[in-house]
Amino acid sequence: MANMKIVESMPILILCLSALSLTIQARVVPLLQNHERPSSKNVFDTSKYGILQLNNGLASTPQMGWNSWNFFACDINEAVIKETADALVTTGLADLGYVFVNIDDCWSAQKRNSKGQLVPDPKTFPSGIKALADYVHEKGLKLGIYSDAGAFTCEVRPGSIYHENDDAELFASWGVDYLKYDNCYNLGIKPKERYPPMRDALNATGRTIFYSLCEWGVDDPALWAGKIGNSWRTTEDINDSWASMTTIADLNDKWAAYAGPGGWNDPDMLEVGNGGMTYQEYQAHFSIWALMKAPLLVGCDVRNMTAETFEILSNKEVIAVNQDPLGVQGRKVYVSGTDDCLQVWAGPLTGHRLAVVLWNRCSKAATITAAWGALGLESSISVSVRDLWKHQDIVGEAVASFSARVDAHGCEMYIFTPKTVSRSDV
């Protein structure tokens, strides 16, 4: 999103953060380049930063909600969607920000109707999408839909390429609030050509619809999608495994400097609660996604969550890191150990604070140290430390470095608050 020109005919939207100069340098990334600023408000000064070309004013923070695919795949129907909306409200997840109820692939009939329009599957969505949107809206939530920037969706339902205007108008007429736009059966046409037409079509409807690009990172969307969508997939599909989750975290980390308010890197949806990882691994998954300012889209069956799953998904302090208005994606700043399995990830927050995750990807428990140099802090700075999973302050203050014992495949997550505001000259 760097170096975009201000378009005078468009309203002032959310601002890019390229001027933060968060440049990756080898293994250590100085983060806190802007501590001199008197307040976070100046970060979003419209006289210094550009605006997104996508004219919808959405995504000031990463999107939060639920998506049907990771748990249900094609086994969806309107009852499941309604019950999920109910569960988001009754569990209190909606109050924590999980407001999007996103229907993924398989909602539509196998063919368009005689007018060339998409049609909800009459067996699974007999009441239609508008009725479902009305139900979700009555709950104070928002409805998301799915289509594909190709001839067919990944499950071989009708795609939207060359039907962008008609489909966008249809989605808007139904009251849809979110569009996930996939990449299957793409006719060999470059993503840069296939995704803008839907942006323009959505804008033309007059309804603000969140636009989520899902082209799997094949054409480095972080380099161009900030002009097109509110989020863009940077990776292949996630699956419910430690290997998949860690690989995807590393892939998404590469593009940290390109995310910011209005447009976010998307390493795919959460697998927390689906059973393929341990509690510690899910806790790390959620912590790193929150730190990376990734969309927090729940992928489990929220109607039947375990207490442990709910504990992870409902951690207000971790969610607050994800939703911090400074909007700077945290990243991997230091690694050590065998195969770099002892890791420090960090990112700046409003109020001169710093979110820090000590992530142990080794097979045994180990002590991980975050040195101030890796965090962009001067060695003389003292910080207070808040543990976000234990929900308690660490006694005393830390200077020069901070260490903690971390379980295998687990993490510890903190907020550091410097007593003296300064910055590293690194």
UniProtKB/TrEMBL annotation:
Write the signal peptide boundaries: 1-26
Q: What is its EC number?
A: 3.2.1.22
According to UniProt, the reaction catalysed is:
Hydrolysis of terminal, non-reducing alpha-D-galactose residues in alpha-D-galactosides, including galactose oligosaccharides, galactomannans and galactolipids
InterPro entries given in the database record: Aldolase_TIM, GH, Glyco_hydro_27, Glyco_hydro_27/36_CS, Glyco_hydro_b, Melibiase_C
- The superkingdom of the source organism is Eukaryota
Ranges for domain Alpha galactosidase C-terminal come to 340-415
Task: Name the Pfam families on file.
Answer: Melibiase_2, Melibiase_C
A GO BP entry: carbohydrate metabolic process
The Gene Ontology terms for molecular function here are: alpha-galactosidase activity
Annotated keywords: Disulfide bond, Glycosidase, Hydrolase, Signal
Q: Which family does the record assign?
A: Belongs to the glycosyl hydrolase 27 family.
| Matching PANTHER family | ALPHA-GALACTOSIDASE MEL1, ALPHA-GALACTOSIDASE/ALPHA-N-ACETYLGALACTOSAMINIDASE
Name the UniProt record assigns to this protein: Alpha-galactosidase
